[in-house]
Amino acid sequence: MLSTFKLIEFIQKNIAGKSRGPTEREKQDSLELVKKLKEMDEAYKKATAPPKPDTSAIPVSLGLEPKTFTPKTDAEILEEAKTALAPSYEQKTQKLEKDRDAAIEKLEGEADKELNRYEEQAKKLEESAAGLSEKHKRSMINQGIVNSSIFGEGLLDIEKALAESSLAAKTALENKLTEIEAKINLARLNFEEALYQYDLQYAASLEAKVNSLKTEQEKIKEQINAYNKKIAEQELKYALEREKKIKELEEESEKRRLEQEERQREEELRKGYSGEKAEEMERRYRLALETYGSLDKEVALNLINKQSEDLKATLGLYYQRLIEEIMSK
Question: What is the pLDDT of residue 1?
Answer without folding.
Answer: 47
